[in-house]
Design a protein that fits this description.
Number of domains: 1
Oligomer: single chain
GO cellular component, one term: plasma membrane
Pfam families: ABC2_membrane_2
GO molecular function: ABC-type transporter activity
Strand content: under 5%
Largest sheet: none
Distance between the termini: 36 Å
Order of helices and strands: HHHHHHHHHHHHH
Protein name: ABC-2 type transport system permease protein
Keywords: Membrane, Transmembrane, Transmembrane helix
Radius of gyration: 21 Å
Shape: globular
Helix content: over 70%
Length: 278
């Protein structure tokens, strides 16, 4: 009697594929739990640390601020909302969420296609659209978790860092916009990967590059007297309404949500029409 052939990694994945197909969302969350924990803790701790600097920095920052940086929300460093809108929620936190969205979005489809496992997964009762949507839903939950941890971090230091002039509702509005920004660039990374079939590194680099460019456009547009360019950048809808001062701006939030829906829908449409064979 001949000996049984040992199972290879693809064989094992095949055996578990039916169960996987019904739990793509939860499995994606479970597989990314450690990475998500690092992102959430790092973002929360960094925003907490920079937010706690407000009493020491606010009095001396405004006079030395270059005029060219005012478009990045750094014009009003003397007030609590102005300081956080510039240094924390205008620079640090949004760029971290952009890179989270780019890195996670690049893994949603591109990682499996690059490794050759995507066609194996789709050989089972799991449509391409369903796979993409459940993976993207997990990415969205991750962005919400990061924003929620950031919100809790800011509330924790609100009194000690003299940030009492900002209401909890305004902090919540800023956290919602932060999550939506991460979702938007996650949708961009997911859509690019699904539509083009490029490798994870290319998708991440493209998405992150677009994010940095969009950030620069939103910041430098006033300096070149082209305010209209800001409306082409997701960062305008993220921070332009000054949620720390004015609360949640529904129109801006809906624009970010609409951009995400369009990007994911375009990626799903293209994914269903191209050959993914390697």
């Amino acid at each position: 009697m001949s000996r049984a052939k040992p199972l290879t990694q693809p064989d094992v994945q095949t055996l578990h594929a039916p169960a996987f197909a019904t739990t793509v969302f939860t499995k994606t969350l479970w597989d990314n739990r450690r990475v998500l924990t690092v992102w959430a803790l790092a973002t929360g701790l960094l925003t907490m640390m920079y937010g706690a600097f407000y009493p020491q920095l606010s009095a001396d920052s405004l006079p030395s601020m270059p005029e060219a940086m005012e478009g990045f929300g750094l014009a009003d460093m003397s007030s609590a909302a102005g300081y956080l809108q510039g240094a924390v929620f205008g620079l640090l936190a949004p760029l971290l969420l952009v890179f989270y969205g780019a890195a996670t979005g690049a893994r949603m489809i591109s990682a499996n296609e690059e490794s050759g496992y995507l066609d194996l997964l789709l050989a089972h009762p799991l449509s391409r659209t369903r796979l993409l949507l459940q993976r993207f839903a997990a990415l969205t939950v991750g962005a919400v978790v990061i924003a929620a941890v950031t919100l809790l971090a800011m509330i924790a230091i609100r009194s000690g860092a003299e940030l009492d002039s900002i209401g909890v509702g305004d902090f919540t509005a800023q956290a919602i916009n932060l999550a939506l920004l991460g979702v938007t660039f996650g949708a961009l990374g997911t859509g690019i990967g699904a539509a083009t079939g490029q490798g994870r590194a290319v998708v991440f680099g493209t998405t992150a590059g677009i994010g940095v460019l969009a950030y620069a456009v939103n910041g430098f547009a006033p300096q070149i007297h082209a305010e209209w360019l800001r409306y082409l950048s997701p960062f305008h809808y993220y921070i332009g309404g000054e949620p720390l001062k004015n609360g949640l701006q529904l129109t801006d939030a809906c624009v970010l949500l609409a951009i995400s829906v369009i990007l994911v829908a375009a990626g799903a449409w293209r994914l269903n029409r191209r050959d993914i064979a390697r």
